[in-house]
Amino acid sequence: MDDVITSAPNGCLVPMVGDEDFSPAFKKSAERVSKRVGMTANNVRAMANAPELGATMRQFLDDVWDHGDLPKPTKALIRHRVSNINACLYCSAHQVKVLMSQGVAQEKIDNMHDYMTHPAFSEKERAILAYADALTIDAGAIQPDVIANFTTHTSNQERVEVTIVAAAMGLLNRLNDGLRVPLEEPMLDIASNITFDKD
Hints:
Layout: H1 24-37, H2 42-47, H3 51-66, H4 72-85, H5 89-101, H6 106-110, H7 123-138, H8 144-153, H9 156-178, H10 188-191
């Protein structure tokens, strides 16, 4: 458990479960997450405190990442935007690492706050990210121009997948922040460079 931090600013609400105590379902999930971030993530360790429901939740999150036709770099962009809007430092740091692992240009990572105007982003990416922003802020009050642009640039399947990816990330943000899941030691350098739109 060398890469686990056992304290957080407000104190984690649950202990970080060690690899040796994972159920078979959690071992599988931990391996899937480790492939993305290079370690057993603390959110996996936290959810392992609820062997059945936690494993179900991890399976859902893993499936949202692995299944569907939406490209993984696009999923990572969505997940980072949602995490940023929700000011979830844990998830934002992890999504930056995932963006890098997916080969997303550093120019995009560095200019996520300016995705609507920065030339690194395509019109389709702008439409998807604007929709993800609006969905995260108030799903019932998405402006008609955001919807029109989103539907112009996406297929029916993409609209559903974008919505699922964004909504699932919002859920994970709340789980991690609600439980006060601490960042892992290797993520601290990434986290130190994160800024939020709310700042």
